[in-house]
């Protein structure tokens, strides 16, 4: 294997680390990092990315210098010994035989060509992803993703932070600041939902259409990063037109028993108004 082939994986790996670190710092600089990770991990992530950039650059320099000095060293004084000449002859004979095998189409040459193609392909993908991250505007997770991740599921995972949800039903708790996550958790974990009927709510989220004049008001809850984001939602019934999918809205109304008795969610929001809004600067809940 040539020295260029042996250094290619190391260079590609270091280049990938450098690309990811630069993208992370760029997202932090333009204020979009919170679209990908939980804000409580932002400082830690930025520090790691800042350390990764010089480390990756230094590694690439070392790899490049190693490649430049990977040829055989000469004997002291600049002359070759007889042993060197014999070794050179053996290497020449072996190289000639290897080239002959390569020209014959044997696996050695094909393997090197395959590695080269895969290496260039991986490099192209790395560069492409980096350019896309820097050029294309970041977007939030969509209604399609929410449907794929079962926004209408009857249970919520620990990612929604529902550990203290039993306290939410206490009369001493102010529910005016409850978000979609809080109400969804309370509704799904309260055995007697009759006490919730009639409570007024004002909630913001995006639309996941459900048909028949209803939709699911949805938010994504991020525990660590967008990869583990879980959608949570509340069913909304409205006498008006259902907004398009992915539209952000603020819903005002009251909690009522779900007209669909076969549905897993026993409580829905009967909307008195559905107002379309711009996407919030922080679209996730935590």
From TrEMBL:
Keywords: Membrane, Transmembrane, Transmembrane helix. Pfam families: DUF1980_C. It comes from the Bacteria. The chain crosses the membrane at residues 7-29, 41-63, 116-136. Residues 70-84 have a biased composition (Basic and acidic residues). Coiled coil: none annotated. Residues 89-98 have a biased composition (Low complexity). Residues 192-286 form the DUF1980 domain. Residues 69-112 are annotated as: Disordered. The keyword Chaperone does not apply. This is DUF1980 domain-containing protein. The keyword Membrane applies.
